[in-house]
UniProtKB/TrEMBL annotation:
Keywords: Lyase, Metal-binding, NAD, Nucleotide-binding. GO terms for biological process: antibiotic biosynthetic process. It comes from Microbispora oryzae. This is 2-epi-5-epi-valiolone synthase. The lineage of its organism: Bacteria, Bacillati, Actinomycetota, Actinomycetes, Streptosporangiales. It is an enzyme of class 4 (lyase). Residues 53-165 form the 3-dehydroquinate synthase N-terminal domain.
């Protein structure tokens, strides 16, 4: 993407180029690692550009940064349609730029370039923007899909391994709800993909990396497309997101989002086995793959039945009064439950206790 001969980064959503100045907003890590190449790219193409760099930290998802971006759009003289700002970074950066663009003049287009694994497989398909407010995550936001999103696996070469594991949690979720082939790829190559940071050291892994990312994105797009505005709250993509939100908040900063999602994937699979919906052999495969991805299958907070009951109660409010709990009936298949009771949550939590690992990284070896 940063090869000056490649026009993609400049190309406007409808095609063609802008002669007006573009605002390019960079994640601070991207500026540090790729800033010279980004600047060389626009210089070589003689495109007038102004830069703004923001930290890729959850605290950056603030109304102050939205207003800072809006001020820069004013300074730059951004046109209504023909000079959309370009956001290059992880999900934090693209969420905050997306919100600013969706408010500016009641909404202008923007170009989203995702640079972490989580952002590439999850954020890049999403229609949502958002910032945190008064201690609540994504409390303010909009549904405003950008007309153009670009993904380049090259950026993953510098993403820290724990951030890659974070993205792997979301890929695992996609595999579990609808893609047995993706699950098999994770079983076979997941550990190597993390080790090589989705690059292509031997001339074969690059194709696997592209297939894994491509399948995760295609699966997500297929699920979101008919329900972009989330009017239907029975969403299989919510698998792994029923108990994890509260646990993730309680565990901060220990658990990244994708790690909490993975724990929820395992816990929900335990519930499914206890109901006789899922073959215990499938649960064994799921637990084995989490360990291979150096993701923990269990955690003390997922053994705490009271916390898990509270987590589900909060999710029920988020799902407008229904559990709508996605549950596996096989690897690649889900159904929905609305009658999960306290006793079965406690029983599943007790099973999670038997899976507590000491150190997932060494257990995986
Ligand atoms: N809009 C949506 O629907 C949606 C969906 C999922 C997640 N999100 C949001 O995404 C955010 C999480 O995104 P994330 O996981 O990308 O985290 P992030 O944006 O915080 O990035 C993680 C870290 O990686 C750094 N980084 C980014 N690209 C890099 C690169 N190529 N090399 C080295 N370091 C790099 C960042 O500076 C940061 O320190 C959350 O705020 C979440 O709410 C939004
Ligand atoms: Zn998620």
């Amino acid at each position: 993407m940063l090869d000056p001969a490649n026009p993609e980064l400049l190309t406007l959503p409808g095609g063609g180029r802008s002669t007006a100045t573009r605002l390019v907003v960079l994640d601070h890590s991207i500026d540090e690692l790729y800033g010279d190449r980004v600047r060389a790219y626009f210089d070589a193409n003689s495109v007038p550009v102004e830069y703004l760099t923001l930290p890729g930290l959850e605290e950056s998802k603030s109304i102050e940064n939205v207003l800072k971006i809006v001020s820069r759009l004013n300074d730059v003289g951004t046109n209504r349609l023909s000079s959309p700002p370009i956001a290059i970074g992880g999900g934090v950066l693209t969420d905050v730029v997306g919100l600013a663009a969706s408010l500016y003049r009641r909404g202008i287009p923007y170009v989203r370039v995702t640079t972490t694994l989580l952002a590439q497989v999850d954020v890049s398909v999403a229609a949502k923007t958002g910032i945190n407010y008064e201690g609540y995550r994504n409390r303010l936001g909009t549904y405003s899909p950008p007309p153009r999103t670009l993904i380049d696996r090259m950026f993953l070469a510098t993403v820290p391994r724990h951030q890659l594991r974070n993205g792997m949690g979301e890929i695992l979720k996609m595999a579990l709800i609808k893609d047995p082939r993706l699950f098999a790829l994770l079983e076979r190559h997941g550990a190597d993909l993390i080790e090589t940071r989705f690059q292509d050291p031997d001339g074969t892994l690059g194709a696997v990396a592209s297939e894994v990312i491509g399948r995760a994105i295609a699966g997500m797009a297929e699920e979101l497309e008919p329900n972009l505005w989330e009017k239907n709250l029975r969403r299989s993509v919510d698998y792994g997101h029923s108990f994890s939100p509260l646990v993730e908040m309680r565990a901060l900063p220990e658990l990244l989002h994708g790690e909490a999602v993975t724990l929820d994937c395992v816990f929900s699979a335990v519930l499914a086995v206890r109901r006789g919906l899922l073959d215990p052999a499938d649960l064994d495969r799921i637990v084995a793959v989490t360990r291979r991805l150096t993701l923990r299958p269990s955690h003390p907070l997922f053994c705490d039945a009271d916390l898990l009951r509270e987590a589900l109660a909060d999710t029920v409010r988020h799902r407008d009064g229904q559990q709508n709990l996605p549950i596996l009936t096989g690897i690649g298949r889900v159904c929905f439950l609305n009658d999960v009771g306290d006793a079965e949550i406690a029983a599943a939590a007790a099973v999670m206790e038997t899976m507590l690992d000491t150190d997932p990284v060494s257990a995986a070896r």
